[in-house]
Amino acid sequence: MKEKGPSTLSITASETGTTVYLCIAFREEYGSDYGSEYSDPVNITVKATSEKENTLKPTLRVNPHTTVYTGDTLTLTCDLKISHTGWKFMWFRVSQQLQPLTPEYKNTNTLSITASDTAEYQCSALRGENDFTHLSDSVRITVREKPKPTLMVNPHTTVYTGDTLTLTCDLKISHTGWMFMWFRVSQQLQPLTPEYKNTNTLSITASDTAEYQCSALRGENSYTDYSDPVKITVREKPKPTLRVNPHTTVYTGDTLTLTCDLNISHTGWMFRWYKVSHQLQRLTPEDKNTNTLSITASDTAEYQCSALRGENDFTHLSDSVRITVREKPKPTLRVNPHTTVYTGDTLTLTCDLQSSLTGWKFMWFRVSQQLQPLTPEYQNTNTLSITASDTAEYQCSALRGENSYTDYSDPVKITVRSTLLFVFFF
Question: CA neighbours within 13 Å on the CB side: how many for 231?
Fold first, then answer.
């Protein structure tokens, strides 16, 4: 065979084993053939089909997961456990027939795809023009609708400046390994954290009204949708008003009712009362679900109240109210015209109370074995007219409001004598 330049020979691998091949070149000159030296030997090993299946069947791997969501980015890797180099790779989507994902073989064994629907995938490798691997086993990638978390707020979505809130990004899904991020919705989404966190709760301090959203990430590329925005309305912290009934100036032992008046529509408040001494002193060991408190006056002091809803929702303290406690007054009972009279005489009892406070009602008592009221109830006037019948002691007292009583006056004895009978003789 006379050829100029390189010479080629095609052979078909038929028998298993290793065959040594060499080549030599001849040149005809002056009617004689001159041969070159033999080439270096080349070993060609032919393996059985079963061996080829074991060594030349790639494995298709998927990162990060084989169950993903619409729009997630996946990396397919065609893993070929063989030492030979120079392979090119192709990936296929398994539908009714194999559909190449790339128009030709690529030099790299990885391919990035965007998940759109559930399908199976395979890959193969090529070296040279005729050295093909088998197709890999198919790998099924399940594509689900992108999940959407729910943003929950505790304790309330209407709160007050400075209140502490907990945002929870609730994802109803069985897969684990999610990372979470929260966003404040302004003109654009503003992350509340610099990166995704491995907990689905976030504590924030309320400052102003805004909307919030959250999302979740699994792996490097598997994102959920954003949650629906939740509006958190932040209002100025309310301030209750402390009211005192019946009066803020009372007497030792009087019963008072404190009312913590909160003009707000929200319900579920608990209330606290404080006595202001050198420091605030709780009047009750725990919060009460009623806004009234009954106390017995003992000494002059200031009082305040506040309200709590949930664990972190506090009002301001009310303005302090000063309750002045005075020594219980003692009226003086006076009798007009005299304390020694005759049967049938008319007397006026006056319950004299030296107090600047008004609104008193009065009652008189006849002192027998026990106090006997002379009137069925307290009267608006401090005088009472009686007709003398027999010797007895009398006392009086006064009442203001429902619970503010004076002491009893000292008893006054009225001596009643029989009427003198004059007999005239003519």
Answer: 3
66-82 per-position pLDDT tens digit: 988 888 889 999 998 88
Same fold, 59-144 and 331-417: yes
**Does domain 241-326 bear CATH number 2.60.40.10?**
yes
Check pLDDT > 70 for residue 49.
no
Closest CA to 202 of 176, 165, 239: 165
| Tens digit of each residue's pLDDT (9 = 90 or more) over 81-127 | 887 788 889 889 987 666 777 777 787 889 999 998 999 999 999 88
Residue 148's nearest CA partner among 174, 172, 116, 183 is 172
Among 2.60.40.10, 2.60.40.60, 3.90.800.10, 2.60.40.1180, name the CATH number for the domain at 160-234.
2.60.40.10
For the residues 294-317, what does the mean pLDDT come to?
87
pLDDT digits (tens, 9 = 90+) for 211-245: 999 999 887 777 889 999 999 999 888 899 999 99
- Largest Cα–Cα separation, the chain: 214
Domain ranges of the chain: 59-144, 160-234, 241-326, 331-417
CB 243 within 8 A of CB 258: yes
Quote the percentage of the chain above a pLDDT of 70: 89
Q: Is the pLDDT reported for residue 209 higher than 80?
A: yes
> What would the CATH number be for the domain defined by 331-417?
2.60.40.10
Q: What are phi and psi of 171, to 5 degrees?
A: -115, 110
Closest CA to 323 of 404, 269, 378: 404
Task: Decide yes or no: CATH 2.40.160.40 for domain 59-144.
Answer: no
Percent of the chain with pLDDT over 90: 36
Residue 190: what pLDDT?
74
Pairwise CA distance, residues 286 & 371, whole Å: 42
Q: How confident is the model at residue 51 (pLDDT cuts 50, 70, 90)?
A: very low
